[in-house]
């Protein structure tokens, strides 16, 4: 059985020669015998309960197929891939259940609660923080609740610019349905091709156009959620109000631990008539970051705004299409590459571009023209494919991200870099970019590549823990848009405190008293 | 004892003659004997507990003074004023406690929990939905927790554009402290002169510049809260993240029921160099509303954007300075008046103004020049003073507000107007404006004026209930920015459902197990 790879096989390719020269290659991880030999464990769930599930959601909606269960095992973090490559499929669900409606989900939860079956909501399967690997102890078995049948445009209100989407819709499917009406959502995370609407909401995703279109949670107007304690509908009356706490914000980021999101109502926008992406060069990461800050604080953000640090600019990861082709030595520009993108009507793009160009020029940036921007746009979803190729030749590659206030950016950058380099040792490349900005702060997204060595998983877990500790010690957030899952759970308490954790537990008890929903995720 | 009036006595004046002609005046409500004769009830709280409070927060921080207790009784809704004018001071707190620090508040809550004393956080006292009139039953007494001593600029991070403010700071005080650093918050609700930072956060306030600067909850980056179960600090690590549910949004709008907000960290901005306000005329409320929608959906919002309906335009309440002066007959323009305001740097104001002017002209608006805008700006905080003068001459005047999606605006407008006119009968004036807009919807703010009659309070409560029912039946939100308090509590369930209410109760149990915090507020 070949290792699970990212995405569409026709998009994947062998590792470009240029990359081989950039990293120290040791072990071909894909050839471990385990990956080829180990089968999915047999379902633990008693046959009677499987029959019961069939009675609840229908015969066809209950799938025991080994291949599907294998593909519903864990997510797409490098540890997930390494475990799979090492033949460890111990987190495979016992059964995949594919409900067709909110009512199906509600009925499934009632049955699962009664029979103490753990339920793991599954959207696109692109989780990178262990959100699909539940604790099994104390449960009769684990159901992967695959939302792939709930993929419709439920409602559209063009006057109010809102659309209600099924949670199983993947990014391109949602955009295609909206495009039929001349509309779009505008949420393009790197996982766009495969991640789902429900997953975006459950994990507070943030996309590559967040400067212009906002984080996914900020796009959400309404939610419908099935919980073991009953249905919740929120945001159906108004965009915002003063009707007490905003409970939408409890379910956004709840990672399947409070309920299963069955409908998401989002703000939509007209399809942009114009899309222009360009490059800017900055003498340093700090100079480029200061320029981003000036734009954000001046309410002058373009649609896309990204900045690679010196290392990332040098190896050209900012342009994943070009990696290995036009390699490091080919980069004349040096310094730090910023990608600036404008989308909208011709007049709005022209006005914004004029104002941003003026500001960036004043701030010391040098325009590089459209070519770097177009190259970035062409390769914007390619990095995970590249990761598979790197793993194939024994390179350990993984990403992590964080967010903090502008005044803390440099300290955080230095601390995380040092933690990763310290943990992984000589020959480790640590690259970084800023891809999400706010008036008050920005994210930092790190990519690490190093020789895998004999125990790549253990090496990475140690490095990741060191990075997490450095993030907390720097006073930053443990995750900007990858969510908590099980991997970050141990570091959540510094974010929200003991009382905050107690509140999450109280909400969990109220909504999921038996604790069947994605057990072990999110809550420390 | 004279009735409690709004604000600074030097700003109040007799009712302009023009207004007397517009409304049917009957009873001089201010002259009821009760208002002059009834004293504040004696404190119920046993002397031993008062001594205990002194031991906890200091001798000087515990105030039994009748006048202060009277001024800490209820808020500033018309029912609050009518009860006061009728001599009903039954909701007076037993004692006013004025803590000086977060630690004081934490200690006070511990003592109050131990001795079952109800605690009502008090900021500016401008609540209009019964948020300061707690249930007393089952408590040893009621403490008004006056935050007026916690009025400092706790911290400023000019690089990140954040400021941490004490909860007792009133609007102008907060702005003055920030202005020393060339910064501002930009939150200007009608209660601006007296309302407090903590109150803005606890009630999800929204100001007259919300089009440009956003709702108060959207300005909040961080919160520090004292709860009976301990301290909560949120938002200290980053502007936004994916660390699970956003618990800030549980405390925003919690109206003192979950904890006492002791620090608020907000996004700040540079003081605007330019402020320009102007008027636009629209042939109808619908035409003006459609134009607002186009601006919001085109991401082309000015700083201030308001639209009065035909009635409000006619009696000139959109220009409170002019009411009675340039009265209805004086209005040549007719149709509906829109106020459009621009604030910022000269270049940003010029660019935005050019784009908005172009859009509004294309959409059918007629520019009225700066005069109506300047007049609005000069009188923007005057309406509550006018209300006192109207009550003096027997006119019942009150406001209520709601919010919905754009496609539901007309239906909501018609339904609420009909409900108010139906309940209050002939001779009732119902005015409306839109003062807060979103890409997906807008608020509707109604002002009602009618002859008070023999039982003005009972008449209003009946009309308010009818309006609430109409709002719920229309599928809109029961409040956009006035909060739930006790007045809207009976209508919260349709907003968030039974499960949503159960979640609020679960959070309340966790944070305030004895239920001492503002009992009876918010949660149905």
TrEMBL record, chains A, B:
Residues reported to bind substrate: 387
Keyword Flavoprotein in record: yes
UniProt-annotated binding residues for FAD: 203-206, 255-261
Site (Important for enzyme activity): 306
Catalytic site positions: 445
Residue ranges annotated for the FAD-binding PCMH-type domain, each copy included: 89-271
Names of the cofactor(s): FAD
Keywords: FAD, Flavoprotein
One example GO MF annotation: alkylglycerone-phosphate synthase activity
SUPFAM superfamilies, A to Z: FAD-binding/transporter-associated domain-like (SSF56176), FAD-linked oxidases, C-terminal domain (SSF55103)
One example of a Gene Ontology biological process annotation: lipid biosynthetic process
Record InterPro entries: Alkyl-DHAP_Synthase, FAD-bd_oxidored_4_C, FAD-bd_PCMH, FAD-bd_PCMH-like_sf, FAD-bd_PCMH_sub2, FAD-linked_Oxase-like_C, Oxid_FAD_bind_N, Vanillyl_alc_oxidase_C-sub2
Family classification: Belongs to the FAD-binding oxidoreductase/transferase type 4 family.
PANTHER family: ALKYLDIHYDROXYACETONEPHOSPHATE SYNTHASE, PEROXISOMAL
Protein name, UniProt field: FAD-binding oxidoreductase
Species: Nocardioides antri
